[in-house]
Known about the structure:
By secondary structure, the protein is of the alpha/beta class. A 7-stranded parallel sheet has the order 3-2-1-4-5-6-7. It has helices at about 20-35, 70-85, 100-105, 120-130, 140-145, 185-195, 210-220, 235-245, 260-270, 280-285, 295-305, 310-320, 325-340; strands at about 1-5, 40-45, 50-55, 90-95, 110-115, 135, 150-155, 175-180, 200-205, 225-230, 245-250, 270-275, 290-295. About 35% of the residues lie in helices and about 20% in strands. It comes from Nannocystis exedens.
Amino acid sequence: xxxxxxxxxxxxxxxxxxxxxxxxxxxxxxxxxxxxxxxxxxxxxxxxxxxxxxxxxxxxxxxxxxxxxxxxxxxxxxxxxxxxxxxxxxxxxxxxxxxxxxxxxxxxxxxxxxxxxxxxxxxxxxxxxxxxxxxxxxxxxxxxxxxxxxxxxxxxxxxxxxxxxxxxxxxxxxxxxxxxxxxxxxxxxxxxxxxxxxxxxxxxxxxxxxxxxxxxxxxxxxxxxxxxxxxxxxxxxxxxxxxxxxxxxxxxxxxxxxxxxxxxxxxxxxxxxxxxxxxxxxxxxxxxxxxxxxxxxxxxxxxxxxxxxxxxxxxxxxxxxxxxxxxxxxxxxxxxxxxxxxxxxxx
Length: 347
């Protein structure tokens, strides 16, 4: 099967550091190639892949200080995809809804994985208009606000089984990984660690738009000697960071569409304590890979219990549910249904 993967241009595929969507696109693309598919990846020129790379711009937009208009390269990307569209059996978009008018008019065999939150008011009118666009959710919770969208499947993210090494002997610290932003609630992670008297290591991206929030709400918390802010880390450092943690704290209070960090921790054998938002109850196996909680008091108690969970069972559950091979199989089934005009089969 000839498949096009259309990735965001903001980060490379895979990203050099933070970047959930581009990381998933990379895992999927490489697994499809390994399975024998003929894949073309439309992405930034600094991407690395075994697929055919059609580079849209020389560098990922976040790493190019000369780029000021982030939309212009994506418009060029859409035109490139349109020119080559007939070369593919299926075009798989990961750039949200930007291609909808184009896909409708070209009549493409295509689908879109929605990687972000869908509870935004503006999306209601958009999906009322584009009910014909086949879309895929990354959790059942993610799709709830958009009942009118044409969901043809639900595919949980997956990681290569050899990406992270299982670590049976962690050090004595808790971990937080992600972004420093109001919805990610790193302040809750600090509060949990303080109440347990434990070290907390924070690996987090800080965007310029969040700088004021950081200075106003977070910087003072990092003055605690038990709190270590290590900054933004890349793939090479993530395994050791998560694998040596006694527990990953995932304390967000927004409708998390999936939460890649949770399965990255599981792959290392590290249990997770997460607030019950969005996809969390679907991703965590409560009492096996961690605990879902509803309050700070419950999070403190659950973290103490989570550190006693069997780390090997965390790894085993990851292998069973969240491998890149399983993710690619799920998508291949959806591609096949589109090619044969059978519609989607819920995953």
